[in-house]
User: Which sequence fits this backbone?
């Protein structure tokens, strides 16, 4: 339910593909359904690995209106690996501080990234249509292809591949592929075609999402109010986006009349109550949402793989939807590449499902808890909520019980079967299954970053390996592993103490990272043949 007053979105023309005139059904290694935030990121990830995927998009525009705005640090790191991180940071609004108000008093504020030594900020606010614009530019620069106004209308799966039927302005045609990735959003037709249950919870509340253009003098922070005077009995959220656009989310309650609430004159009245009569603003976008949390039980069904909102959906409190979708891509891309290259078994893709369903369940838990706190469903839970808010005003311990949305953080895949269990003791939060923590490096005398050294391939990082002459690369059953050493007098040196501290490094310590920058294994001394065993395990060849 949306009203566009000043929609900003690029549109694209339909171009007839030579595949439509082929005598036989043409086949591609990978087809992606959906050129949204997740489908575009997926295509870039595969293109950067040399896999050309065809993106089929039913519309002729990028995301319309106002949806995702908060792009989290891990997402920015993944986009940085894909060559599109810098522009997101440059064009977006960086923030790391959140403030929570009860009525009109500040309850507390929080800092999402109090420490230094990270290339990417805690968050960047950038509207989804801008994000998709930069993703599309990157994909096209890599030689990728999006077929606009190509709607997948049926899916036919067999043992070695999939055939899809596509509707276009010129009529229907068919296309084959080895693997079909369904990134076709929350209302996924692929999910429906395969008859998959997508169960979860609807939250009985309505939220008015409005984007306004104004020159505001609020700082670059997330501001959340419980029961502010300007919006009695409900919650409100304010975020700054790029281009002087501001996002205002107002809780309305389940009984609100959606059509009345969306009328621009009624929205303006509510915004004026919030901003005051003196502030000049123009409304860019109005929409009204009822939120849901749900996930598929499995993301891999034969040769059809689900990612993004097609696989899981959460309420936006915590900004976990799009961010989780980008992490799906991060997890899937390298596994699919190894399977396509024939150096890993197909069963490696099952671990995509296991790891990302685990992450989705974690996201849903956080999102559900936040939504329950924000919209208490019974008198008792409202009393409990209000008591928590009163306590938090007086006692700092109660602040941790206030939940205005726990913001997106990457999943730690500690239980993954791809991890090698520690034989040695390490005293740090990073462990097998964790996403790599960035750290400042000195690369040939210049400022550098650990994550920039972990580039889309298995990488072993050995710290001060004491006179050992390690090869720059080793081959493990067709999988190339980069070996890098960090230490005094070498090309890669520590930039400050962050690397040693975040990985509890002592001379000889070695970490093995997967191509998606998650820790696969670690040892106190150079592991020798154990490294190869761990690479095989992380590539799904369990030994
Ligand atoms: C109000 C709101 C605020 C949000 N805020 C945030 C936030 O701050 N941070 C965050 O991370 N997330 C946020 N989200 C969630 C985020 O918008 C979604 O998670 C994200 O859009 C998912 O991307 P996707 O590519 O999976 O799906 P979509 O963006 O929905 O893209 C799916 C694409 O598939 C295409 N398609 C569908 N069917 C077919 C077909 N049969 N053939 C061809 N193409 C097809 C569609 O046209 C569309 O382009 C928010 C969502 C809402 C509603």
Assistant:
């Amino acid at each position: 339910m949306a009203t566009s007053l000043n929609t900003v979105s690029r549109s694209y023309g339909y171009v007839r593909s030579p595949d439509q005139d082929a005598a036989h059904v043409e086949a591609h290694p990978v087809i992606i359904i959906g050129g949204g935030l997740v489908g575009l990121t997926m295509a870039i990830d595969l293109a950067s690995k040399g896999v050309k995927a065809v993106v089929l998009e039913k519309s002729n525009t990028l995301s319309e209106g106002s949806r995702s705005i908060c792009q989290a640090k891990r997402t920015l790191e993944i986009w940085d690996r894909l060559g599109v991180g810098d522009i997101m940071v440059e064009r977006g609004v960086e923030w790391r501080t959140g403030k929570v108000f009860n009525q009109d008093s500040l309850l507390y504020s929080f800092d999402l990234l109090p420490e230094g030594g990270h290339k990417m900020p805690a968050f960047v606010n950038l509207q989804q249509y801008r994000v998709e614009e930069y993703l599309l530019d990157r994909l096209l620069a890599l030689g990728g292809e999006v077929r606009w106004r190509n709607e997948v209308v049926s899916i036919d799966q067999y043992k070695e591949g999939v055939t899809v039927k596509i509707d276009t302005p010129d009529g229907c045609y068919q296309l084959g592929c080895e693997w079909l990735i369904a990134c076709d959003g929350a209302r996924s037709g692929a999910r429906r075609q395969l008859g998959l249950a997508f169960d979860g919870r609807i939250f009985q509340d309505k939220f008015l999402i409005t984007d306004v253009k104004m020159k505001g003098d609020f700082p670059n922070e997330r501001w959340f109010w419980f029961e502010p005077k300007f919006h009695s009995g409900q919650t409100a959220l304010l975020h700054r986006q790029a281009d002087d656009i501001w996002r205002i989310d107002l809780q309305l309650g389940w009984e609100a009349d959606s059509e009345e609430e969306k009328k621009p004159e009624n929205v303006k009245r509510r915004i004026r109550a919030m901003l005051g009569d003196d502030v000049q603003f123009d409304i860019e976008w109005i929409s009204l949402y009822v939120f849901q949390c749900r996930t598929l039980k499995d993301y891999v069904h034969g040769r059809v793989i689900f990612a993004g909102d097609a696989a899981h959906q959460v309420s936006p409190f915590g900004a976990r939807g799009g961010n989780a979708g980008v992490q799906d891509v991060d997890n899937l891309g390298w596994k699919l590449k190894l399977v396509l290259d024939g150096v890993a078994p197909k069963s490696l893709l099952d671990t995509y499902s296991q790891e990302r369903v685990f992450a989705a369940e974690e996201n849903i838990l956080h999102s559900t808890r936040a939504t329950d706190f924000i919209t208490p469903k019974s008198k008792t839970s409202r009393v409990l909520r209000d008591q928590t808010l009163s306590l938090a005003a007086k006692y700092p311990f109660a602040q941790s019980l206030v939940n205005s949305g726990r913001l997106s953080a990457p999943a730690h895949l500690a239980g993954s079967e791809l991890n090698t269990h520690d034989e040695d003791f390490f005293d740090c939060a990073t462990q097998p299954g964790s996403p790599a923590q960035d750290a400042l490096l000195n690369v040939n005398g210049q400022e550098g970053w650990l994550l920039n050294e972990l580039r889309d391939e298995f990488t072993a990082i050995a710290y001060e390996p004491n006179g050992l002459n390690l090869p720059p690369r080793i081959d493990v059953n067709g999988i190339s592993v980069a070996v890098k050493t960090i230490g005094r007098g070498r090309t890669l040196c520590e930039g400050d103490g962050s690397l040693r501290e975040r990985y509890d490094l002592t001379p000889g310590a070695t970490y093995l990272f997967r191509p998606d920058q998650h820790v696969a294994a670690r040892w106190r001394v150079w592991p020798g043949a154990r490294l190869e065993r761990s690479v095989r395990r992380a590539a799904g060849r369990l030994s």
